Amino acid sequence: xxxxxxxxxxxxxxxxxxxxxxVEIANGSTKGEKEDKNLWPRAxxxxxxxxxxxxxxxxxxxxxxxxxxxxxxxTSFHWSKIDAGLVLxxxxxxxxxxxxxxxxxxxxxxxxxxxxxxxxxxxxxTAVTPLLAHLGSHTLxxxxxxxxxxxxxxxxxxPSLASLCSQRVLEGERGFLMSAMNSGSNLGILLxxxxxxxxxDRYGWESMFYIIGFLAGLxxxxxxxxxxxxxxxxxxxxxxxxxxxxxxxxxxxxSLLKESPVWAMVFTHMCMSSTFTTLMLxxxxxxxxxxxxxxxxxxxxxxxxxxxxxxxxxxxxxxxxINQGYSVVLVRKIMQAVxxxxxSVFIVLLSGGVxxxxxxxxxxxxIGLSTFSSSGVSVNVQDxxxxxxxxxxxxxxxxxxxxxxxxxxxxxxxxxxxxxLLTLVNATGLGIFLIFGEARRVxx
Length: 444
What we know:
By secondary structure, this protein is mainly alpha-helical. Helices cover 75% and strands 0% of the residues.
């Protein structure tokens, strides 16, 4: 097979080292010693993987707290649907602004430090949200600002994780790490829904924010105490005559934007992210309208239970194929084909009039298979340019597709048009990635 290699040394010219740490092991260069100082030892890598998994879970719990409590809050503060949409949309506007900053700051200061600082900040915002809501008569403005700040602070997470992954983790293990983080996000959505069903009726919507904020703060303290305190987290770099790899100039960014693999990665991520966001936000409404007698605890929980092991399985398969000698770019495309291609088959099946059990199975399959993207385009950013800004564009695209989907349902009174649109977006993004996608560093 043309995409296989006899050894693992030459995968598309990329050996998993950070930008300034290209290593020529065969020549016995002392550069390898410098690179080893950046990579986590295996025991530390496992500890960080577990810690980041829990952190991602809590990140999504905090992110989903407002959507889950929105109905109760709208009743309490007499919000209209437009008001509630303004509050919920505030997160995404803030989220877009810190994408580039997150990757740049992580390269300079260390991803561990950036993640910790941001976690402490958004944990505090989450915990004080109920206090802000009852602070005065300007509840709508305060909640919108709180969501905007939440988006700003959480916006650095995945760019920092991408930078951290490229600097600290071996190439063949990156797919599993990102898949574990994806599983953490799915678990966070699941737990937020479960906590909401238990807390809202018994203790009020305020308890949701208090508990999640406390747990996130506790996670940050444990991470600092066990993994960061007394350790060097700033990436060690080789001496160079210039430092363009770590602080891209305007010329550097313009050069980067000329690379077709970068645009393919960004465009595919935009398509994948927007379709997943649309499914996540509209599925409860779809099930409630199409199957009014179905239990919400079933269709709001089971798909995310399926997504967790599916994401881990995708990461395992990705790492296994790379370790077997398959080229990195081939593995990335296989994972993305499963995520956007095979999952779309099950989305299309929802267009017809199907019974509830079949619809639930199709949704579980679509969401479960979509998690394979964590070992595809989501990790491809570390292959090409760890400080890339694709999450920012993905957030914008998500806002557009969610709005268009709502408009289509309102005008056509049919969910089939929405599922057809999602399939079209997935197919377009996948086609671009299969044609132009690469796995070689382009910011060197």
